[in-house]
Amino acid sequence: MAGLIRLSSDSLPVLLFLLLSASSPLLSHSEIQLGGEEQEHFVFLDRNSSIDGFDPTRITQLSWRPRAFLYEGFLSHEECDHIIEIAKNKLEKSMVVDDDTGKAVMSDVRTSSGMFLEKKQDEIVARIERRIALWTFLPEENGESIHVLRYKRGQKYESHFDYFVDKVNREIGGNRYATVLMYLSDVQKGGETVFPNAEGKHHHEEDDSWSECARNGYAVKPKKGDALLFFSLRHDATADAASLHGSCPVIEGEKWSATKWIHVRPFELPRRRGGCVDEDLKCPQWAAAGECQKNPLYMVGSESSLGFCRRSCKVCSS
């Protein structure tokens, strides 16, 4: 039988102790409440469930400003290869969010290509999503779909924040609270994740194996199976400027990664009205620009969720 444990936001080490002492716990969570001094986390421990491969002994704390942690071997090599296999034929040019409008736009700041998986797309993806919830102590339902990225030689993502400053992208789920960045491949040189404003930016070893870009802050090398967790917001839900980060250009090889962004509230797109309709006035324009093929989950939808622009994509009849 699951028991309810109430912890303050500064009591997560206690929760970790409980997790380690439980024979086979599984965590499920209610909504995380942020923004006031009386913050609480509500966590259920079920000792009769499997732990989905979660092993807290592999976690290393990297920094407190920002709060950043490295989990060595978070994914198996088989899990990494599985995600790449799903994504490799569905990649599109990566976009960035315009701070003023909240719209996705193309930019030279980000030169990778990527795609979104569906939540619980298959049992392997579902298991990884459960493992992320176990590690972060954040509800599964607060997460976006996993975003898979490929960086070829010379491709990069310049320093940026994961939290939003526009109101549009905070309407569903509130702001992004935490990021789990999973490395799906090794990179011969370059491709590091760098935090230019991190408190310990000059504390890690630097040798010839690091790129010049990585020397501009605290950097983490991509290693197949490892995962990086960092928080974009502080406990009081204010933005943490130390969470500024970027992906250094790949110098040798190719970099694959998968990102899970986690919000302060459940992140679920509004339910579609049903029928053969468009949910946005710009759907005809987007369809004419090829977005039905480039962004099918949003435009058309899936078996479990209707898209926003079904009529303009001509996948239904009115």
TrEMBL record:
Name of the top EC class for this enzyme: oxidoreductase
Domain of life: Eukaryota
Gene3D superfamilies in the cross-refs: q2cbj1_9rhob like domain (2.60.120.620)
InterPro entries documented for this protein: Oxoglu/Fe-dep_dioxygenase_dom, P4HA-like, Pro_4_hyd_alph, Pro_4_hyd_alph_FE2OG_OXY, ShKT_dom
Essential cofactor(s): L-ascorbate
Membrane topology: Single-pass type II membrane protein
Name by which UniProt lists this protein: procollagen-proline 4-dioxygenase
Native source organism of the sequence: Spirodela intermedia (Intermediate duckweed)
